[in-house]
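Is this the right way to post structure tokens for a design question? Let me know if I should format differently. Anyway, here goes:
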């Protein structure tokens, strides 16, 4: 399946792996790229030299193109922005902020710039500043979310910009891929399904929690702080929501979630950690390699799109 995104990134399949903090490291990114998709290393809040090492390790595992997701709230984002240039990364996706100040440097280096957006206004602005494509992410996604659904957001952004749109949020199988294609997207960014991939370094407890998740297990915390995050229900979310309802301060709520994602991903504490996952968790019932995941999604999607 050829689209402007496969041409832009030099990939076989229009599937991008989400740049998930603590999850999207070199093993996963390289495996997705080797399978014909586009792998991403999630820089999250890591120091620049750690990101450099991740990039170099990914290069040892694959000669296919891959990218880096840069969280712009990261105090190290300026250094990370320079590292991707120095290491010759193919593309960057950005989140949690505005990448405008780094875009001239990236464009000059030939790096494709693909910001993650949650509104038509931001998509149009990114196009004006020279973005090569945008990831339009609906609130069904895991982790930090916006307020619009994928179903409504994608066609509005597709209508508003001329650059290619990558759909994200709520896509976990070929049906979801086919659906966003019909809405005008030219690729899909998938996160939660890759969390349970064989090549993912995520703790077994975390993977099992996603596989066992039901449709009602997804919950959003942080609505009162203006930073909503989608996670799977557990003891931590129960306490957090109770505190939110009682009008707890931002500091109190932050204290409860400090280091919670690492706790879940690395230590396997799925009761007190932050088990970030999208609403598609209820659809995911098995473990597979990245190659199997991508091929299954594409085969199912192509059958549906032919119909």
């Amino acid at each position: 399946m050829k689209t402007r995104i496969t041409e832009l990134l030099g990939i076989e399949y229009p599937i991008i792996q989400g740049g998930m903090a603590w999850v999207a490291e070199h093993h996963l990114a390289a495996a997705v790229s080797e399978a014909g998709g586009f792998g991403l290393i999630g820089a999250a809040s890591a120091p620049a030299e750690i990101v450099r090492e991740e990039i170099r390790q990914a290069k040892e595992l694959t000669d296919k193109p891959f990218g880096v997701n840069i969280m712009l709230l990261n105090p190290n984002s300026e250094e990370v922005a320079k590292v991707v240039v120095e290491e010759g990364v193919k593309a960057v996706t950005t989140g949690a902020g505005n990448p405008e100040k780094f875009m001239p440097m990236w464009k000059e280096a030939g790096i494709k710039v693909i910001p993650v957006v949650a509104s038509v206004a931001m998509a149009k602005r990114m196009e004006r500043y020279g973005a090569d494509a945008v990831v339009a992410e609906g609130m069904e996604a895991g982790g930090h979310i916006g307020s619009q659904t994928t179903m409504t957001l994608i066609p509005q952004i597709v209508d508003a910009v001329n650059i290619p749109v990558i759909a994200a949020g709520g896509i976990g199988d070929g049906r979801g891929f086919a659906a966003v294609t019909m809405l005008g997207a030219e690729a899909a960014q998938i996160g939660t399904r890759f969390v349970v991939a064989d090549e993912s370094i995520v703790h077994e407890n975390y993977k099992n929690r996603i596989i066992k998740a039901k449709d009602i297990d997804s919950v959003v915390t942080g609505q009162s702080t203006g930073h909503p995050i989608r996670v799977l229900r557990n003891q931590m979310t129960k306490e957090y929501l109770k505190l939110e309802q009682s009008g707890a301060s931002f500091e109190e709520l932050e204290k409860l979630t400090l280091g919670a994602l690492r706790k879940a991903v690395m230590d396997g504490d799925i009761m007190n950690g932050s088990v970030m996952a999208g609403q598609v968790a209820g659809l995911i019932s098995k473990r597979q390699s990245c190659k199997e995941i991508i091929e299954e999604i594409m085969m199912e999607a192509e059958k549906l799109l032919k119909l």
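Format looks fine. Someone answered above. Worth noting: The longest helix spans residues 290-306. The chain has 14 helices and eleven strands.
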